[in-house]
Amino acid sequence: MFPAVNTRDLSAVQNEIEGIFSSLFPEADRVFIARAFEWTRQCFSGRYPGYLAIDARYHDLEHTLQGTLCLGQLLRGRHFTGAHPVLTPEMFEVGLLAILMHDTGYLKRSDDREGTGAKYTLTHVRRSGEFASTFLLAHGCAPELVASVQNMIRCTGVNVDLGAISFASELERTVGYALGTADLLGQMAAPDYVEKLPVLFLEFEEAAKFSLDDAPRSIRFHSAAELMQDTPAFWANYVWPKIDRDFGALHRFLCDPFPDGPNFYLDAIEANLARVRQRNAAQPAL
To answer: Residue 89 phi/psi, 5° resolution?
Structure first.
């Protein structure tokens, strides 16, 4: 069982990630971890010049921190199994940057006053990669690191062709797939996931409005109830095949103890899905 960490508190998640990093790499300097979290605090709070504070209500800072926590726990579990390719401190840091910046595409520029960042749902992965590149290069990061961050961010795209991503190494691919896994598991295992589904519907509704007729079926729902009705199928037909097949079943490294212990994230998701089914059963047929 993983320790309870308040994902509404950036400092709490930072402390947990710093502890994980130190347990994996006791001789490594943790200064970069603190810097990455400070950059995140600035970007999401509206203290980065040219950008407003995040105003998407589902894809908010907590959503990012949920994925960040899950990624750290997954990489820790994998590292201590002796899996290959072996994780390095540098690639842990790249993965951390990527998960912290993977939804910066929802941020609006200072002169963007129409709607919320949710209107960028369909383009947020591309926008996140562009934001990460501009931000990291301006802060002196090497182009190779920036390219790795962008590759990992692309792993979070709904319809991404993973085979088309030019990973620089098998380790970069592995961490990218771990990031994609954590992005999905972190949010769906959250204690308030079911309660936030109506908020997710409002984001989809706004995205569809701004996309007009180009909005795909994946974000076109007539109501929050319809989205909730679709959620068990979303897990069974999209999320589970994605994490178990496409991402190489890295979720197994969240089993504690490995390999046969309980998986906190999968258990929490099953509990959330049971609550969704219960609510669906109480609703009139759509």
So the answer is: -60, -40
Domain map (residue ranges) of the chain: 10-282
Confidence (pLDDT) at 4: 87
**268: closest CA among 57, 66, 65?**
66
Do the beta carbons of residue 159 and residue 128 sit within 8 Å? no
Which is nearest to 277 in space by CA: 241, 223, 244, 235?
235
pLDDT tens per residue, range 88-142: 999 999 999 999 999 999 999 999 999 999 999 999 999 999 999 999 999 999 9
The one-character DSSP state at 190 is: S
- Give which of 223, 180, 230 is closest to 202, Cα–Cα: 223
Is-contact 207 119, C-beta < 8 A?
A: yes
Residue range 206-220, pLDDT digits in tens: 998 887 656 565 667
Residue length of the chain: 286
**What token pair was written down for 234?**
């979303």
Token digits of residue 156: 């979070």
**For residues 253 and 256, what is the distance between their CA atoms, to the nearest angstrom?**
8
DSSP 243: I
pLDDT tens column, 244-268: 999 999 999 999 999 999 999 999 9
* Cis before 232 (ω within 30): no
| Partners of residue 255 on adjacent β-strands | 263
What mean pLDDT is predicted for residues 49-69? 98
Rounded Cα gap, residues 176 and 153, in angstroms: 7
The number of C-alpha atoms within 13 Å of 15 and in the hemisphere containing its C-beta is 9
Query: Would you identify the CATH topology of the domain 10-282?
Result: Catalytic domain of cyclic nucleotide phosphodiesterase 4b2b (1.10.1300)
Annotate 133-193 with DSSP letters as a single string: HHHHHHTT--HHHHHHHHHHHHTT-TT--GGG---SSHHHHHHHHHHHHHHHHHHHTSTTH
